[in-house]
Amino acid sequence: MKKRMFLKLSSTLMTGAALMNISCSPEKSTNSLRNWAGNLSYGTASVFEPATVEEAQQIVRKCSRLRTLGTRHCFNRIADSQDNLLSTKNLNSLISLDAQAKTVTVGGGMRYGELCQHLHQNGFAIHNLASLPHISVAGACATATHGSGVKNGNLATGVSALEFISANGELVSLSREKDGDNFYGAVVGLGCLGVVTKVTLDLIPTFSMQQEVYLNLPMSQLESHFDEIMSAGYSVSLFTDWQTTNVNQVWIKRKIVDGESYQPPKEFFGATLATKNVHPIIEISAENCTEQMSVTAPWFDRLPHFKMGFTPSSGEELQAEYFVPRRQAVAAMQAVQAMKDEINPLLMISEVRTIAADNLWMSPCFQQDSVAIHFTLNQKTKDVMKFLPKLEEKLSPFGVRPHWGKLFTMDTAQLQTRYKRLGDFKQLVKRYDPAGKFVNEFINANLYGAT
Ligand SMILES: Cc1cc2nc3c(=O)[nH]c(=O)nc-3n(C[C@H](O)[C@H](O)[C@H](O)COP(=O)(O)OP(=O)(O)OC[C@H]3O[C@@H](n4cnc5c(N)ncnc54)[C@H](O)[C@@H]3O)c2cc1C
Asked: Is 139 close to ligand 1, i.e. is its CB under 6 Å away?
């Protein structure tokens, strides 16, 4: 059966009265649904698109193996299944905004981009966004997706409560207030606890921002001013191709205080203020990027680098990203730069961001102020997969942790030693999924050490 036909049939099946007859015998196809980057096809064509939480519960009850799918932006097989996928595409409603408690509750499939405007209109914001607004809230939090900012935790740190369907089809609610430590285990859940149907996020008052870009920051400035540079705004990113002794671009996103925009100086630690909007990959038109040049706009139009409705990043690409302790940022960057000749044929651009420490057990920033060194790479999968082990070895002395949603090759045993609470996480997973219904090959290989 053709993919489109199957999806059409399956969504009709899921939304009709015939739901009670859901069969979970998977329809296999080697050429099924692909991830956003197109570098992988998921291992099954059995894709359910429930329209309601009740339908999702029935699907969970009937399937013996299942994985939840958000907006498909991961580059590795973390979201994959050989059996069944449950897409949260239609579980994307805005459930409630509690102005008193300063929280918003959304369906797990809600994309950040769909939520932000509404929050702003009601006088609210969330603390940070990733480089793109296209991703689902539950999918982003499940992998500890982050933006930048020395004081900003990753997006999952803004979650105050979760509701998910556990393996027996029952709804489970956990909150920061009520469930303490276990809650911190569940938020970066890697899709292992069940299907997240509701996420409650902390709100802060809405705010305006401006962003400016500086070109050609001498790397030597980072050696003595790294913290100062990365603290120059609410969120700061360095973009570089590692090829010269300069960082190519510094993006500074500032909060506007008391309605007064900031006039940036023409020079910043030896870098020069850009005179027009730029794309992080300088050769690409800046049309898809959020406006720079210190033009004021609401937070959601400045925190991401890319506009909703436009292709983020470059499109046909691969991504890898590694977290190291912030205090070792410069040494880690120097280790990467020492590989500049090997990186050059594969790299489109690198980005360096800061993320504040958190208490989320499976977060790469668990109890550690971190720096994330990101690589947007050409879609030469074989070459990239040969290169990543060398890069990981260079970063190994820094106790490197990879991004859960991007490519990595790190040895399982080594990876597991980097997560102090992994044993507790496995216990938590067992409580909600005793038979491993939500465990896929990626989870098996990386958390349980088996393929
Ligand atoms: C162009 C581009 C730019 C990116 N920029 C950033 C960035 O700035 N910062 C960053 O940190 N990352 C970034 N990423 C990576 C991205 O944020 C993560 O891969 C994120 O997890 C994607 O969310 P998703 O909804 O697409 O998840 P999917 O890829 O669909 O799923 C990811 C994981 O979440 C689980 N999951 C999804 N929904 C649910 C649910 N409702 N319940 C339970 N589990 C669920 C899946 O099972 C899977 O394990 C970028 C990716 C792309 C393609």
From this structure: yes
